[in-house]
Structures are given as structure tokens and as C-alpha cells.
Amino acid sequence: MRLKLSLSTLIILFVASPAAAELPKSWQAFLEESSASYSTVVAGNFEDQLYVAAKAAPTREAAVADFARRLRLDPARAGEYAELIVDSVVYFHTCETASSCVFAPGTPLYDRVRQLTPTEPTGGLLSAILETAALRGEVAAQIPLIEAHPAALSLLQHFYEYGADTSFLAAALLKVPDDPTGLPPLLFDQARFSGTQDEMSGLVYAVLETTEARMAETPAGQAWRLQIAQHLLDEMLSLGLTHAAVERYLAYPDAVRARLPFLPMDWAPDDQCRQAGDSLAFADRMAAALWVEGHETEARALWAFALPAGWRKASPVSLFDPVREALKPTVPDAALFTLYLDQSDRQKKGADTCGNKIYSGGLQGDSPLFQMAQHSASEREIVARRLQAAGYADMAAWLRSQGEYRYISEDESLWQGREAQIPDTVRARQAEWAGRIAAARTIETERLKAAIAGPVHVASPTPVVWTEKPLPDGVTAWQGDEAPEVPKSAQLPERMDYVLRYEASGEDAAVVFASGEYDMSGELPAFGLWLGLKRKGIWEAPLYLGMQQHFPYVVTPGSHLPLIRDDRLQLEVKVREIDPDTIIFPPVNTQFKRQADGLYLDIPLAELRADRDGDGLADIEERRIGLDPNKADSDGDGVVDGRDPLPLTAYKTNTDPRTDQIARIILRQLMGHDAGAIVVAPRGKKASNALDDILSATLGGAVPQGPRGTMFIVSARDIFSGIVQTPFRLIVYSPADLDHLGRGEAPFYPPQVTTIFASPDGSSFYVAWSASWVGGAFIVRCKGETCTTKTLSQWIT
What we know:
By secondary structure, this protein is an alpha+beta fold. Among the domains are: 1-150, no CATH class; 468-625, no CATH class; 657-796, no CATH class. A hairpin with a 2-residue loop joins strand 10 (564-565) and strand 11. The protein is globular. Residues 1-20, 186-191, 359-364 and 690-702 have low confidence and may be disordered.
């Protein structure tokens, strides 16, 4: 008999055939959200294997059976395990905010994880759940779950390697027995402490120290001790505790020091390879510390360290080793400028300890001087001494001023509320470590401040404070945000190109406009506010209002309140105050911290015009830019501020002409840097899409581009005092001046010469600059009066 099928029957069969159609909706969501859908599937990973099983199976039951088979799970439990994985992936991948992704005791998912995961003895189930939770930053509740698991030690080691969070390290070491079995795992593997509160409190260091001390005199115990000792010494060096690290190293018995750096001979080749990088770097850092502290014999022994036969050799990539060259100079002094600073035309292939191909050169940051900034204080000191002796005092000072960048997390300790689980011996050592760390950080902070601050030139700040008033009774707040139309007959002066409000009556007119004349706000809409007045058909010089858009006010485009009355300014505003804590670059999704409508600002025009020292600049202008409103000549060089091209920099007749030339080159390089800013408007409390923010700013954001009569620059070195004339007023600040200007929280991002180095003969200069959102670096070389500029790098957010 022949079976006949209708067309409709065939359609039903084809529609029903895909496997996902018969899976529950939560499982279909799991297939869409699982990280296995866009990454390599790992054998033994519970989430990955469930994904593979569910992708191929026609039903949930078939998927569970295949999942159990793949991981050799108890079939009676496999269904519960699968549902827990599905629910956790869907939960953490679909919730939109941190508050909707809570993973803590008392929440349903957390309690299910706590009850079910200990029944799976390998820890694979718990690992899959917590790796998913970590994607949302949910780590605070992980350690209690891990500690309650039979495989706690291996899980803690895994999560330390997975996220390099030192709290997992501390918890793992507390569980290591005094006489461990086997060799230590790759617990450290080139990781560095991550700036958690548990590091800053000294807890992790105390755990390292006490664990090392209690290790048994057995081969395994001593292997653990050696690895911990090396890591602890290395971290002390990175914290700046050089003297304490040297004392600790020298206090070890000869038998221990003879086995440092740590080289476990019976590890697998790949593990040996990774450890070799740590051990070689430790040998160099520890040797440098010993050398600086005067222990030259011990230092030379460590520098002579070489990897044993059978280990992969490290292939140096840099063109030379600055530390060893400093100890035994081989490069002519005159060649050090190019060698240390300009690698942009050079590229050298090489391989790391593990044989991975890497390249050096081609970027400014790859230059040896900037690579040295990542090295220990002792290594930097050795190189600084060489540079100082060769005549490069500024490069030497810069190297000495560098401190290790260490992000300090604001998250609370992962041991919060669980301090009772910390042994008393650890607590005692923790207190001492906390004191050491606090003292080291204080010294480092003060040293860095002193290195970059420079002198204070600006007058004592007296910020302009406007009185905020509610609109008078009977005057309603202005509605709408459309910019006012200015009639062509108004014939505004060129500098009033970005009009916020315009009013006219006969031959008189008033205009409020935005300008970057005194307010360099980068990519933020925080331009300065100015007032232009036309009397009897003639425009007067604009008056500065001493404030910036969005800090805290924005000007309404119109008002039912006259702008000028009885020689007073009555400016209706809204409060749309940008929260400085939400400013990033590019400034997408900037939020408001205060909003209000129906307000105005009232001030006599005479106060805006006041010039008590008669120097040609209004008091309100001088206060804003740091000049002294009570002193006609702020820098004391004989030229009043209103006519002085550099009113904060006293002119000197005996400056080096080459320095003057370099100063002018810097100005040319930095002029107009802000013309390309993509100004992004704040989004208030609305949800934001970063791409939408940038596109809307690019396509529709108006930016004041009128002529600017004032340029600001920040430089720690006085290289501008020989300039006689400039086409604009040049205000040169030191870094310390920025802290004394009294601008409050309003953004002010003038270009800052962050670094300037000169060759001993004054023929070459290296300059790096930044305005927070844009910057670059270049080298200037001069032959006689002819100078050429070579750009090394340029960047913009």
C-alpha cells in the first residue's frame, strides 16, 4: 500500500522537526545566551557540554541523558544539575541592571546553588555557575559557596587563576595543609595582586607569610615555601618595600636562597615555560634591589642566573637591556637620547620564554625609557644613575618619579562578615602588613605629588558664586529648548557665533552666547557663558559670566522675564548639573546629579564690568583664569595683564634661543587641538546607547568655533619665559596651579605638556602632551636655527 501525504501534512512535519522546538522555553533561551554559542566548547565544562547536548537533542529528556553521559553524572541528579545551569545562564545573561542580578544568600538561585552543588563532587557544576555569575561581577558571595564544597581547595585555585582575585588566593592558602601532597599548582603564573581591599588591608600578604612559615620540611612543603617566598618578595618590591624585601631575602638560609628563583624541575614543559618568565623577572628585580642597597656580591649572583638545561630560553626583544647597560656602559652618551626615546622606525622580532612571537618597536610606548617605567624602583634607579651621569637629568628625574600603577578597588572585602574564619596568627601579621602598606602608599603619593606639582603662580581662588532665585510671582518658566533665531540685521560680532538667547529692542540688543575662550571642556558641553550688549547700534566688548553650561545651569532660549532691566542681568536658567562622577571619555551616558526649572540669576552689570586694578581685564575674568584682580601686573614683569601676552609668566631676557624655539613649536603643535572634539550631550537619567550618543553628537551637535583670544597650556617646566609676543594671550600653568584655580567640579582640560626631555647639547627634545581626551608625542631635532618635528604618536578618545 502506498502512503499518501498531503501538502499540509508535510508542512507540519517540517515545522516540527527542529530539536529546539521541543525544548522548554528556558532551554531555548539558554541556547541563545550561553557563552558556548560564541566560543570554543571545552571538554569537561558543564555549561559547554550541556549546550552541545541540548543543541543536538530533540527533547529535554534526551538532552539530559546525553549531558549525563558526557560528564559521567548520576542520572538521578543530572536533570537537577542541567536545570540549575540553564536557570543561572538565563538569569545572569538577561537581567539588565546590577540590582536585578542579585546573587546573595536568601535569593532563590543562590540558595539552590548552595543546596545542590555539594552533591556534585568534582566541583564542575559549581565552577560553571560561578563563572557565569562572574560575568556580571557577582563575586562577593562566591567564597562561602566554594568553602562549603568538598573540592574547595581546587576550586579556589581555579578561580584565582580564572580572575586573579587575591581573595581566592588567600582562601586557598588557608586551606593548604602544612604537609601538602605533590608540587604547588600554577597558583601565581605571572599574576599580580589586583588592588582589592583584602590586599590593602594586608590580609593577603599575611596569609602568604604565615602559610610559608608553616610548611613542613618535606620536598612538597619546601616547593610550596619557595614559590610563596618568591612571590611575597616580588610583591614587596612592587609595593616599594625595597629595604624590607632585601632584609627578608638575606635572612633566608643559604639553602633557601640557593633555590631562588623558583624552578621546579619536574613540572610539565609548558608549566616550566610559564614559570620561567616569573622567575627570570624576579631574579632581575631582586638583584637590582640588592645592588641599590649595597649588596653587590649577592646581586651579581642573581644576575648571573640562567635557566637550566632543558628549559626553554628567553629571547630578549628589546634592542638592549637598560639595567645591564647601565651597570657596564657600552653605548655612547650622545646616542642615549635616540636609543631610549625613538623606536618608531625600528622593529625587532623575538620570542618570549614560551616561544611566542612578539615584536618590539614601532610605537612610542615601546621605547626603552617608557618600558622601564613598568620595572621596579631599584631597576629604575640603576638606569636613572646612568642617565644622570650622561647628562640626561630630566630623563633620570622622570624615571625616579614613576610609581607602579595600582588600581584600588572600591568593592568591600570578600571576607566582610567572615573575619572569624581568619586564624589568629594571620590577624596578627595582617595588622603589621596594613601599617607597612599604608606608610608605603603615603610616601609614594607625596613623592609623586612633589615630582609633578611645580610652583603655584595663580592668585588665591575666589570663585564666582551666582545667587539662584525662583522666578517672580506671575512669571512662568520658559518651555522648549529650541535655539533662538537671530535676525541677519543683528550683525553679531564674529565671536558670538553660538547663541543661546537673543533679545532686541530698537537699537539695543542683548545676546547670551557660549564660548571656549576661558573654558576648555573637551568633549563635554560645558562651554563658558558670555553676555554681549548692543547700545545705540554699537556692540560693546562681551562680558564674561564666570560659569559654564551644565555646571550647574543651562540658559533657556527665551524667557517671560526681560534679560536686561535697570542695568541688571536677569538670566532665566534651568539646573541641569552634570555629575562629575559619570564623566568618562568619550563622555557617553553622562548623568545629571541635580535638575530644577523656573530659576533665574540676577546680577548688576556693573559687577560684570568691574576692573578694580585697571589692567583692562574684568575682575570676573581674572578670578577665572588665575590672575590677581588686585594687581595690575600679576607676574611682575612690568607689563599690565590686559596687554601682557603671557600674564602669568615673567619675561626673562637670558633664556636659551633653542628653548624659545622649542616652546613655539610646542604651541604650534597644540594650537587648535580641541577643534576636533565630538561634544556629547548628557543623557540625564535616560538609558543610553554609546553609539547613539556619539552619532547624535557628530551629526547634530553645535560646537562654538569662534576665534579665541586666549590659549592655556600646562607645563611643569618653565620653557615659555623667553617668548616676547604671541598672537593670543598665553596662560601657562604648572600642574599645581590647576589645584588652586578654584574652578570647582566644572571640567577644564587645557593641553598639558606631561613630559619634556632634552638632549645634553640642547639639539633634540622629546615632548608628550595630553588634554585628557586627546594627546600625542613628538620629537624635535634642531641643526642651528632649523628644527624639524617628527610625530611619534597621536590619540583621541
